[in-house]
Amino acid sequence: MNHYVPMPQSFYEQPTLQLAQALLGCLLVKETEEGVASGYIVETEAYMGPADRAAHSFGNRRTKRTEIMFGKAGSVYTYTMHTHILVNVVSSDVGSPEAILIRAVEPFEGTSLMENRRPGRSRKEWTNGPGKLTKALGIQMNDYGHHFTASPLTICEGWEQDSFHISSGPRIGIENTGEARDYPWRYWVEGNSYLSKMRSPTT
DNA sequence: GTCTAGATGGCCT
DNA sequence: GGCCATCTAGACA
């Protein structure tokens, strides 16, 4: 897997909203005993810490779960949602609990592995949602606390930043968070066919 | 210790 | 469009 070039630590130290866009087109790579699976990030959502009602770290809530959000930029924050695992990239300075949720990727390497992990689904449905992509790539709760610059879970150079167009809009699945639901902190690669689908199309 | 809600997905109608 | 699986962190007693 030497052809993968992990993004340097400095990459993660840019402002969160900027990083959320910079992550688009990057390659998310997961190594397991079964092999390597990877996909290009095509959709992200920023969670802005203390001031963001939708963030787990709203009001500077510091618990066992959110602890990693206070840590170093580029750390892995995994979270269990019902029966699914979601994966986030911790951003901002130590002590500033911000993170970016990876909502969708486009399959690249290890497609047969993904197919096995997502039996009976069409290629598009392997990774077009935050819970789906973790399953397809084999991301688990024990990835919590690792860092994206080191295996087994890394973010590497992917597409050229000027080879696609970025769109932004409100986040998804946070209807009960007051004014926070309207913040346009979701970013995606315009026109990509592996984007997650809207949960509640209500304006 | 007990109760509840949730950054979802899949299956049913 | 609606319902439910399944489970953990967080709040409260």
Automatic annotation (TrEMBL):
Its EC number is 3.2.2.-. Keywords: DNA damage, DNA repair, Hydrolase. It is an enzyme of class 3 (hydrolase). It comes from the Bacteria. Pfam families: Pur_DNA_glyco (PF02245). CDD domains: AAG. GO terms for molecular function: alkylbase DNA N-glycosylase activity; DNA binding. Signal peptide: none annotated. Belongs to the DNA glycosylase MPG family. PANTHER family: DNA-3-METHYLADENINE GLYCOSYLASE (PTHR10429:SF0). This is Putative 3-methyladenine DNA glycosylase.
